[in-house]
Amino acid sequence: MRRFALIAIPYLWLLALFLVPFAIVLKISLSDVALARPPYAPQFDWATGIWAFLSDLDFENFVWLTQDDLYWKAYLSSLQIAFFSTLLTLLVGYPMAYGMARAPEEWRATLMMLVILPFWTSFLIRVYAWMGILSNEGFLNQALLWLGVINEPLMILNTNTAVYIGIVYTYLPFMILPIYAALERMDVSLIEAAEDLGCSRLSAFWLVTIPLSKSGIIAGCFLVFIPTLGEFVIPSLLGGSDTLMIGKVLWEEFFSNRDWPVASAVAVVLLLLLIVPIVLFQRNQQKQEEAEP
Amino acid sequence: MTLPVFEPWNDPEAKPLIEFQNVTKRFGDFTAIDDLTIGIYEREFFALLGPSGCGKTTLMRMLAGFETPTEGKIFLSGQDMAPVPPNKRAVNMMFQSYALFPHLSIWDNIAFGLKREGQSKGEIETRVSDMLRLTRLEKFARRKPHQISGGQRQRVALARSLAKAPKLLLLDEPLGALDKKLRQDTQFELMDIQEKTGTTFVIVTHDQEEAMTVASRVAVMDNGKIIQVATPADIYEAPNSTYVADFIGDVNLIEGTATPTDEDTYALHWREGAEPLTVKTATTFSDGQTAHLAIRPEKVTISAERPEDADNAVQGKILDIAYLGNISTYHVELPSGAVIKAQAANTRRIARRSYTWEDTVWLSWTATAGVLLAD
Q1: Helix (H, G, I), strand (E, B) or coil at B196
Q2: Where in chain B is the domain with CATH 3.40.50.300?
Q3: Which residue in A29, A67, B71, B299 has a CA-CA distance of 20 to 30 Å to B172?
């Protein structure tokens, strides 16, 4: 009985905080817009019964998503932005994780602290800070103008470049930490063994270090890719009017159009899209656990 | 028929494969290797023996190229090794942790070095299967390192380091992680493989039994210096210092002053009023020089009566008996308070043991049984 209770807790948690909200969103996505409060119909009514309620639900909103090209363009553009920003984060994060893992033992805790430190400030404030840095009269442009590198301020804010900068900055710790964990575990004598067997420094890195940090790289990439795909704050604050991301579309459907059913349909499709990388991520974690001797 | 004796170190014509010339290695203020000169010959199985921190691992890492000497030079086949990086040396190393690549199969681990050389596929396959056969690992070729036992991993590490047929193989505490029984078996396997391949082996170990078993010559190190280099038998029978005598095996050290009595014979005055001990030695001592007699417990005979013809005999009381099954070590306390250890084979069953605690016994040894050391 106690064992059952122990297992029940995580399942109840999942039920209350994931499945129930998901069922509600799914139901709204199958409803129609109504000038009411809440702004959709049908509402469940005990008088008419469950069948009358269910017969009013349909897939109209999902069909709509395929008809207006805004949506699939937004999905595609989100996938593209998520993909490239994950790649950029990896390129920036790997050397940092490598440097941390090879730093003297007594420095590592401090370096780790520095990576985590930005989380102590609100995410929103940090994104606003980037607006101050990247705007036409911002610190970056002023510094570059003062140095004489440019003659006219660069237009960075309100472009996709600013979105990439924001995403790489925000999600960098999620990339660094799993890679650092993988590299720190690695036995340094493996590199010496590779060199002893005829590898140059570079080929030892490709043949030993990279494969052995693979699980960290995969974990880090998913940890960046998954939240980036539905990212809303960064594109809406740093991006321009032409920055198309599904998170922004979702927000507009909910709050500007007050079309909750279509917004919910967008959310459901986003979730379905995310299932693929989430399953892959889970499998990677599991494989890694099995590989631990 | 006489077998040719393998003793290139006694041959003035022989040229050593490895030469250390006045090598010093410092890490900051710490001197790991102190002005060391030594030659290691081809086909030798050379053991570096010493307590941890004596510099033996540093010496080996300099051979592999992971450390460079602060002063002095290292030659391999007459070539100065200082500018040669580890990946260009005809030297391979078997790491203490084995350092097997966890993401590669046993087969790929062994093939790793061969692939870097750019050998053809066929050549690699032949060489790897040779190595697998040599180390009896054929069945495990497709497994990953974490799917095999410690002893098997040790053999993979050996196969991998031998695969490139190096001129010199370095073994860093290769058997440290194995249990005693497996270690002993593996020691003989190592010797066997060394003979078959004709590779020069340099082994680092802190286990004196291991060094004695496998090596053709043993170098006993302490504080970055080599104290003595000799065959295992010479190290044991004729240590050149009390440090070596004490480090290798069990020993009784008796301090006294030497007085020459005859040619090569000295009387060692070791206790006020006690009869001086007679010692024969080729080393010259001046009259009244302080000397130590080092004598192994198994060379001390224990008896109930005073033996008639013994060169040296002392009487004492049994203080302790260490029963080891095949032999027993008797700790005998002399009237002066000194304790001398004597070893005797347990040829009779324990219930019928001749001596027991508190028994008064005689200890005796011949004049040539021990060595007289200056320090």
Answers
A1: helix
A2: 8-246
A3: B71
Rounded Cα–Cα distance for residues B302 and B357 (Å): 14
Whether A3 has a pLDDT exceeding 90, the answer reads: no
- Measured N-to-C along each axis, helices A214-229 and A260-291 cross at an angle, to the nearest 10 degrees, of 170
The C-alpha of B116 sits at a distance from chain A's nearest C-alpha, in angstroms, of 6
Contact (Cβ atoms closer than 8 angstroms) between residue B43 and residue B198? yes
Q: Identify which of B87, B92, B97 has the shortest CB distance to residue A189.
A: B97
- pLDDT of amino acid B198: 87
* Chain A contact for B101 (CB, 8 A cutoff): yes
The whole-angstrom separation of Cα A225 and Cα A231 is: 10
In whole angstroms, what is the distance from residue B148 CA to residue B132 CA? 14
CATH 2.40.50.100 residue ranges in chain B? 250-373
**Count of H helices and E strands in chain A?**
16, 2
**So what's the ipTM on this one?**
0.81
Nearest one of A6, A62, A70, A58 to A32, comparing CA atoms: A58
Which residues of chain A are within 8 Å of residue B99 when distances are taken between CB atoms? 187, 189-190, 192-193
Query: With contact defined as beta carbons under 8 Å apart, do B163 and B128 qualify?
Result: yes
B229 CB near a chain A CB, below 8 Å? no
CA distance A251 to A257: 9
**Measuring CA to CA, how many Å separate B76 from each of A226, B18, B64?**
56, 5, 11
Q: How high is the mean pLDDT of chain A?
A: 90
User: What's the pTM?
Assistant: 0.80
**Do B99 and A192 count as a contact with CB atoms less than 8 A apart?**
yes
Residues whose CB is less than 8 angstroms from the CB of residue A136 and which lie 6 or more positions away in sequence, other chains included:
A153, A155, A157
pLDDT score of A290 = 76
Closest alpha carbon within chain B to A291: B146
Residues with pLDDT less than 50, chain B: none
At the topology level, CATH places domain B250-373 in OB fold (Dihydrolipoamide Acetyltransferase, E2P) (2.40.50)
